[in-house]
Here is the input.
Amino acid sequence: MTAAQTLRDAAATMRERAQAATPGPWHVERDEMSEQLCVYNADGVHLAEVSEWSRWLGNADYMALAAPPFALAVAAWLEAESASLDAMETFEAKTVKQEHGWSIRGAGIAVRKHNDGELSIHVDTSQAALDVARTYLGGDQ
Here is the structure.
């Protein structure tokens, strides 16, 4: 599977799950009766409760953060990265004669000499998106 396809698969799965979930945004409130933290949506619908006391606040805050609007934004980012990879692959196959590259803070940087003699610089930021996609899909796609 290509990197672009992995990104598209993760985006589609993420979007499907987000659209099937209770709409967000979500927030955390403390239930005074049970002394648990509860996650609610904007309409006050109870979604989850957290009673793992050693990490209760972090768990509840993370659940609230992972609401559908966040997942849909991440899915859009993954799709944009996949489109960028597709476009560059098509362009490079037709025009690049020689390439020299390196990595800086996780971004691939390439200086390319094209068939017409022109030079260009390409920055590939897809590695972070691929890491997210592979983690979300649960493997090494």
Q: What stands out?
A: Residues 3-137 form one domain. The chain has one domain: 3-137. The chain has a mean pLDDT of 83.
